[in-house]
UniProtKB/TrEMBL annotation:
Region described as Disordered: 1-26
Key words of the record: Membrane, Transmembrane, Transmembrane helix
Domain of life (superkingdom): Eukaryota
Protein name: Uncharacterized protein
Residue ranges crossing the lipid bilayer per the database entry: 35-57, 84-109
Segments of skewed composition (Basic and acidic residues): 1-14
Organism annotation: Xenotaenia resolanae
Length: 142
């Protein structure tokens, strides 16, 4: 009896000494099963989400009555089918005008110093605040 208790105690000490290892058999197989469950559940969730999103977007775009197609047809007809003009204006004029409109607001903040809730996020707070008119004109002019 004493010998059995002693051997069980030694066996418990040996198993606790290797605490970095997994106990029991099939530790790797259990890990593979858990990983397969997690990855499989994720793939199933993403597939269901994608299908649901596609369904909702089809309902939304279908309800708009081909709005985007009609708008594109009007733009295409306005250019009388000149693909090159449409390409150059669409890739140059639209992005350039969007750039200047949005950055014009930031230039307004730099020249006037108002509104103050935006000016406090400037990287160089005390430098060129507000920007001088000569410096501004040299920067903006090409």
């Amino acid at each position: 009896m004493v010998e059995t208790a002693d051997s069980e105690r030694r066996r418990a000490e040996r198993s606790s000494a290797g605490s970095g290892q997994q106990e029991g058999t099939g530790g790797l197989w259990d890990s593979v099963k858990k990983a397969a469950f997690v990855i499989g559940s994720g793939i199933l969730f993403l597939a269901a989400f994608g299908n649901s999103l596609t369904w909702h977007l089809q309902k939304f775009w279908g309800a708009s009555g081909d709005f985007w197609q009609n708008l594109w047809t009007k733009v295409y007809l306005a250019f009388e089918g000149h693909d090159a003009a449409l390409f150059f204006l669409g890739t140059m004029l639209v992005p350039t005008s969007a750039f200047w409109v949005l950055n014009g607001l930031l230039l307004l903040v730099d020249t006037s110093g108002k509104p103050s809730f935006i000016t406090r996020y400037r990287i160089q707070e005390d430098k060129n605040s507000p920007v001088g008119s000569s410096f501004f004109m040299n920067t903006v002019s090409f």
